[in-house]
Amino acid sequence: MARPIRLEFPDAIYHVTTRGNEGADIFVDDQDRQLFLTVLGEVVSRSGWIVHAYVLMNNHYHILLETPNSNLSRGMRQLNGVYTQRFNSLHGSTGRVFQGRFKAVLVERAHALLELCRYIVLNPLRSKAVKNISRYRWSSYRATAGEVQAPTWLSTGWILAHFGRSSNVAQRKYAEFVEAGIGLASPLSKVKSQILLGSAGFVKKMKQRLLGKADSRRDKKRPGRPVLGTLFPLKVRNEKTQRNEAIRRAYQKFGYTMAEIADAAQVHFSTVSKVIKLGEQAG
């Protein structure tokens, strides 16, 4: 199945998730979880993202976020890249922490946003990590329900506005809403075209945007240029010298962007930038 095209525009809302490389845990302990939240807060501050809900599981995470500045991919490269660097430094390890490309579903605000917020924070119950959702520290549930102070980068106002004007009433009704969702089917089961969640009208409109972006990409392709993924088979990705040569060819000969190359090579954007810079200096 072909990788879906990223669709980014101001004020878009996404459910994003990334899993550990080869299914491995991305958090060894609570220190790692706190480290990830620190990095997330830094990215929110720089990017202007609005985070509505999140949960950290052992080998993946979920975030529901809004992008006023149309910068999802850039922010995600920072989030996963900086966390990987700090994780490896902390544990004396090397290599990838995350499994390739992050997954993002574009969400219609009026259609499924509340249900997604609920689905995200219920993950620890579904996985049987806890029996009481209030006992799970690593999600937005407790802050939104008023049980703990919310971090400065978490926005609870939009959710709580649906449940009452008084904070106490809204928080109580939010908790009841979440509890009522236990056992319900995932709203993600209604995703269309791998990346769209919303009404029929929303899906149709976004598909038109996707087609326009695909046409634009085709117009930019050079005659005879190879598909980027063919330059980075597993053997090449796993051998540093071959990988770096493929990065330079993709950029200098075939005109792919650094961001596109980073996705295909499954490395951080800064790695691609460094390889290309060193190549230019040597050449």
| Rg, alpha carbons | 20 Å
N-end to C-end Cα span: 38 Å
- Determine and state the CATH class of the largest domain: Alpha Beta
Order of helices and strands: EHEEHEHHHHHEHHHHH
Supply the helix-strand structural class. Answer: alpha+beta
**CATH architecture assignment of the largest domain:** 2-Layer Sandwich
Instruction: Outline the low-pLDDT stretches.
Output: none
Q: Describe the sheet with the most strands.
A: 5 strands, mixed
Supply the CATH superfamily name of the largest domain.
Transposase IS200-like
- Compute the average pLDDT: 90
Tell me the number of helical segments per DSSP (H or I, 4 or more residues long). 12
Number of structural units classed as domains: 2
User: What is CATH's topology name of the largest domain?
Assistant: Alpha-Beta Plaits
**Helix share of residues?**
40-55%
Percent of residues in beta strands = 5-15%
Gross morphology is globular
| Number of extended strands | 5
The neighbouring-strand order within the major sheet is 2-3-1-4-5
Topology:
Layout lengths: L11 E8 L10 H18 L2 E7 L3 E8 L4 H20 L11 E5 L1 H13 L1 H4 L14 H4 L12 H4 L6 H14 L15 E2 L2 H21 L13 H5 L1 H13 L5 H8 L3 H14 L1
Parallel strand pairs: 4-5
Antiparallel strand pairs: 1-3, 1-4, 2-3
Description:
- The chain is an alpha+beta fold.
- It has 2 domains: 12-214, Alpha-Beta Plaits (2-Layer Sandwich), CATH 3.30.70; 222-282.
- 49% of the residues lie in helices and 11% in strands.
- It contains 12 helices and 5 strands.
- The chain has helices at 30-47, 72-91, 109-121, 123-126, 141-144, 157-160, 167-180, 200-220, 234-238, 240-252, 258-265, 269-282; strands at residues 12-19, 50-56, 60-67, 103-107, 196-197.
- Strands 2-3-1-4-5 form a 5-stranded mixed sheet, with helices on both faces.
- Strand 2 and strand 3 form a beta hairpin.
- The longest helix has 21 residues, at 200-220.
- The radius of gyration is 20 Å and the shape is globular.
- The two termini are 38 Å apart.
- The mean pLDDT is 90.
